[in-house]
């Protein structure tokens, strides 16, 4: 008699997305809760035994009560067991979302795994949690799994949040280490990990599920939950990724050449129909003339209207006004004299301002001409 | 361009032909008096050049002399670059225009077109020529008083001047598009920056927003930090509580206290024994006291019985003594009573003698009273009779004072009536010769006497017969009736009064008064004798008699032989009564003494009885007590009690020593210490729990708002706002730089554009205002002001004189410039420089002389003497009139 679980992590509920305009931020915020609801519905549909959340349900310990209440509601579609592990964003410290949730009262099928002791579910599975009780812990909290005694025949599943030592890129959390061979050493049938926001397999029995709803620009396959089936204790698990995320976060670095504005749309490589669910960041590079700059702006404005949100970084885009640019504005007269003077400044200390001034003049001319 | 000859005919004031010939290259002064047509000459020149020959309507009418319909004609001969030109124009009837040039002659509109081309003006399509049409020549020909208005350069003039400038410096202004760009950039810049480059509008708002966002992040950051700190504190508190729990700190303190309490309990047991011993001492003490009390009580009973016996004896002795005194006291009382009786008798006898004496005296007095009363009664009787007689007389008398006075009145009336009759009577006196008798009614009438006749009377004269006299007075009859009436009234009254006449009445009245006096006198005397009435007088007399009789009957006056007068006897009585009183007092005193003695005796008897009773009771009490407990028993008990007390004291001392040996102070200190320790632990626990509850509730409250989410949001917002601020700031800087650069290049362009003109103006201006520089609008080419001493003065702010002089100077400079550039130019000034003072006028003349080196200048003036020193040829209009208006075709 096997077991079936959904493994997810890093819901980061309550994340503000304040770097975006308020409407975009609000949409991104509420979508995370919607994704959790979708996971609950999925779990109910698949009739899994339990949903394991490997840390960071919440983005912060100081989330609003409203977030906690919405969270409670989002769990409702699934009436099986939820095992919720405190992570580094929501550690089980003296006052935490967990203590507050307990005060709000939780249904019996929701288990807060905030103590390092086995949790036996339906007499089939023993979940060994490694809850974080502070934000950063230098110790490997999964150490205790090795010596944990569970009843013969129960599937042993580890649940932890942190960085697998010597595996993840340096960018990941250096604290909260997890031994790479923990699954073997602790005779685990499956080790469900959280903290890394991309879906990632560490070993045959060790997986990061990644966040189910992308929340940053990083090409590491977020947006999935893992559907884990284990036929019996000791049998290799079967793991399948199911997409549940809504938004795509796309970051592109584009080289723009004079007259080459098509790259802006082409470089994205996203079908038209998906654009509206994309949060896009474009880093523009290259040296172009004023006319191209004007065209780039128009392209970007157009793209901005098609995507969920467009963030452009044009620091790397150098505008060098050409004679043609300037001739387009005026060939003679004092305006031309002024333009020539500004152009002389492009190699001095005032370069940025002078460049911008020329672009503005070009814009003025462009508009008055149009 | 140089005029050589000007001929005008039938033009306004200049009706007769006016011809000014032989005009030279430099300055020519044309003089004319006021109203002579000096300004008309300038109008004629303008008309000759600029007005269409076929001009009609009002414009032509104003050219014609007032009230006439003649044909105004103008002929101007001039040279350009040494070539001769003639323009002829006739207006109104047969309008004509003819231009003679070195290359041919032009007629009509063609002549006008050719001329306009030559002199760079514009032929008006219709109507009169405007200043905009007249080109630079219009500028250089300054009419009287117009100098102060500035240049008023018309459109064609401006265009001529500009094209000359562009030809020289190129199109450095860039036209209106450049200015529009600058204006648009300036509008943009000004929405973000103030004149002094301070942020404003959107930029200012975003800078404020950024500050607000930073402050909000800081505030939320603090809140978040506090939240984290409180969570840490809660963790610490909980760990501390757990430590207390796990280290069993409370239980240990409790055990220590229990041990200390055990030891304290042992001490308490000893203290209890101590207390019991103390109670035993108290008990023995009490018992001893009881025995001793009883012993004392017995002794007092015995001594009381002895005392009672002695008291009984004393009482007996006192009684015996009092009984012995009783007889003596009775004897003294009897003696006093005898003395009182004697005194009372004496007093009674004295009273009787006083009475006798007084009775006798009273009877004597009564005798005298009765005698007097009797005498008065006799007098009264006599007076009463007299009064009665007088009253009777009064009763019959009819005449009293009132009646008499009435009669007197009536008689008076008769007398009066008679006298009135007599006054009108006929007086008759008879005087007989002899003694003849005269009779009336047979009564002789006295002769020689007047007889008053009041009625028809017949006198019988002796020897004569009768004479009838009839008095004839008018009211005689009335008077007669009045007399008769009066007489009747009198007679009637007399009759009623019962008297014959008034004399009788008078006698009767006297008698009546006499009787009345008599009655009154009797009444007065009676009242004197019997003041209380006659009856009272009679009663007093009767009473006196009765009293005297009664006294005589009641008292035996014979006994009163040796009785003295009442006064003496009364004094004797008072003495006797005093003696009696003294005796009475003496007996009262003796009786009181006797009474007191009796009382004392009774008391003594009672005292003896009491003493005996008390003695009996005491003896009985003692007997009873002894029967209960014998004296010997009591003594034994007393001794036993003393023994018990000493034993209990010993025990108490022993137990106290045991307590001291157990060192209770140390045990107490230990116990207190253990208690304090426990309390501390409990207190700490309680504090920690309170702190935990406080922190939990605060955290709950803080958690509600979701400060973490808010902070995250605020941070994002901060990044956004800062980015926006930086972008806007960069934009603002860029706009500022753009506007600044454009403004500077524009300013420089303007300056460069006007430089050729200004260069020409400067030498002229130096003659007038050294160190000053005129400023022109590069667009309108109008004078905008003067810059001197680093300050720009607007043209409008300059004095009228300076303005006029400045405008003349700039005209001269422009004319020189254009002439140099090959544009035909000549200057005509009509009474200009009227506002100049002598010094300025002289300086302006210098300027004119300077300009005249290049351009021809015609000066129209009404003050030729002002120009005499100038040295230029002076032509008078009047001289020109002598000359015929002749048309010299083509040649001057």
What's this entry about, in short?
The complex is a heterodimer of chains A (370) and B (892). By secondary structure, chain A is of the alpha/beta class.
Please, could you describe this protein's structure?
- The complex is a heterodimer of chains A (370) and B (892).
- Chain A contains ten helices and 17 strands.
- With 370 residues, chain A is an alpha/beta fold.
- Chain A has two domains: 3-243, 4-Layer Sandwich (Purple Acid Phosphatase, chain A, domain 2); 248-369, no CATH class.
- In chain A, strands 4-3-2-1-13-14 form a six-stranded mixed β-sheet, covered by helices on one side.
- The relative contact order of chain A is 0.10.
- The mean pLDDT of chain A is 90.
- With 892 residues, chain B is an alpha+beta fold.
- Among the domains of chain B are: 2-173 and 778-882, 3-Layer(aba) Sandwich (Rossmann fold), CATH 3.40.50.300; 325-371 and 503-628.
- The longest helix of chain B is centred in the N-terminal third of the chain and has 76 residues, at 249-324.
- The two termini of chain B are 14 Å apart.
- Classes of the chains: A alpha/beta (370), B alpha+beta (892).
- At the A-B interface, helix 2, helix 9 and helix 10 of A face helix 6, helix 7, helix 16 and helix 17 of B.
